Amino acid sequence: MGSQTFNEIYHILRERILAGKYSVKMRLPIEDALIAEFDSSRYAVRKAIAKLAKEGLVYSVKGRGVVLLEHSPQTQQFNLALNNLNGLQSLNAERHLDYQTEVVAFHQQIVDQALSEHTAFEVGIPVYAIQRVRIVDGIRAVLDINYFNAQRTPTLTAAIAKRSIYQHFKKNGLKIAVVKRMLRVETATELDQAQLALDDNNCIGNMISIAFNDEGRQFEYTESHFIPNKFNFNELIRN
Amino acid sequence: MGSQTFNEIYHILRERILAGKYSVKMRLPIEDALIAEFDSSRYAVRKAIAKLAKEGLVYSVKGRGVVLLEHSPQTQQFNLALNNLNGLQSLNAERHLDYQTEVVAFHQQIVDQALSEHTAFEVGIPVYAIQRVRIVDGIRAVLDINYFNAQRTPTLTAAIAKRSIYQHFKKNGLKIAVVKRMLRVETATELDQAQLALDDNNCIGNMISIAFNDEGRQFEYTESHFIPNKFNFNELIRN
DNA sequence: GAGTGGTCTAGACCACGGT
DNA sequence: CCGTGGTCTAGACCACTCC
Q: What is the DSSP annotation of B202-228?
């Protein structure tokens, strides 16, 4: 995978940028110069630059060139992307926090009208309904409320839910193609108050995820309720 | 702009997808068929598909084809992207809420060590420091705390801050290239409690934005503190 | 093995920025 | 005007999926 032309160019350029090699002019060399240096095609060079741009390191201006973005320790921190598809791991996975999981509820049910309206699952299909608390550094930090389409996921058990559902999916050949996410701040419910270490806070962050397999079918609806002051979400917006 | 080949193909395919024209097979026609139909190059067709994928409508699988993602009213809602570069407008701009602005504070200052550490501005440079409350539907919903590099932005006044700073920038030729964002949930400060309609809630959402001009220079650091239960942020993650 | 998307090459012309 | 990135074409070969 890493031996693709554009990826090699990307990695070399990235290293040079972070080492400050282009910081005098605040510009990347022009495309023709990079094509000559790497003895490759324009396609590969442009794809490498596009990857750098997606990461927030550079910005292309038509008619002028490829500009480097200023980067400080603070703005660098913003580059730790939220691109992890896994469940809790997406929350500041880079810290590699140790955590335990407590399964609060585990059962199967049929989707009714009310559940259908917010999960987007069809009425009548069977789902696994799971509630788990994630204990991070000894703190009850996250309440995960999952609904998995039972027809599109391998068989689940409470024991699997205590370990890693996503690893279980991976082992059984379920491929996650796309996740749509929504973030909001909400007043804590009684369930949140009971399960999470909110201290004096009476609100939670709610990360709603809808996941699709590689056949385009939704197999998951999840709400992750998390305590304040602990988790960050990063995003990059390009013009 | 809209007459580019790939953009035309994109719009046509998008319309067909939303009209359900491909929903039987849950697939897009293969690339060669689209090349033939639109009498264009593979480049244009692939670029159109890439745009659909970025939007969360399709997903390409090597060796199989381009799969349509299931879309329901709920998952469609997730497509309203957070791609607006403007300040408050990025918060659910599609609703076109009427709002008023109250300028709470407006002054110039020099960046000291403490301010430098969280804004990423260099110590010693002059900045505009502005605090504004956004009153949405009569509710004090957002507290914007802005710092603008005075050397890289056109002259600002309190009157401009009451209207639109971004329109003022645009008129004066400042181009916003990239915005890096961070989202978190925090315990409300005394300032938040004083300025926002928090009711019984004691937390806020905090959207931190660092904006760069098209020369790659940071010109803005902003914190937008917003009340719970009112704003949503969407995101799409692809594998 | 046939079908399909991913990568790559070698060109061409256009649109925009700066001089 | 020149230099630059953006779009586009016409091909080629590779990697993966499915039968």
A: -EEEEEEEEEEETTS-EEEEEEEEE-T
User: Does at least one atom of strand D sit less than 7 Å from the CB of B62?
Assistant: yes
Nearest to A120 among B75, B202, B232 (CB): B75
For chain B, the average pLDDT equals 90
What CATH number is given to the structural domain containing A97?
3.40.1410.10
Indicate whether B68 and B96 sit together in one domain: no
| Nearest nt by C1' to B32 Cα | C4
The reply to whether B40 falls in a domain is yes
Query: Is residue B35 one of the residues assigned to a domain?
Result: yes
Both A39 and A62 in one domain: the answer is yes
Reported as a single tens digit per residue, the pLDDT across B25-77 is: 899 999 999 999 999 999 999 999 999 999 999 999 999 999 999 988 788 76
| Contact yes or no for B178 and A218 at CB 8 A | no
Find the domain containing B72 and state its range.
5-77
What residues are paired with B44 via a beta bridge? Answer: none
CB contact under 8 A, A180 and B218: no
- List the Cα angle B133/B134/B136 in 5-degree steps: 145
| Residue whose C-alpha is closest to residue A179's, from A149, A207, A212 | A212
| B5 CA vs D15 C1’ separation (Å) | 28
- Number of Cβ atoms within 10 Å of the Cβ of A79: 14
A107 CA to chain B: closest CA distance, Å?
Answer: 24
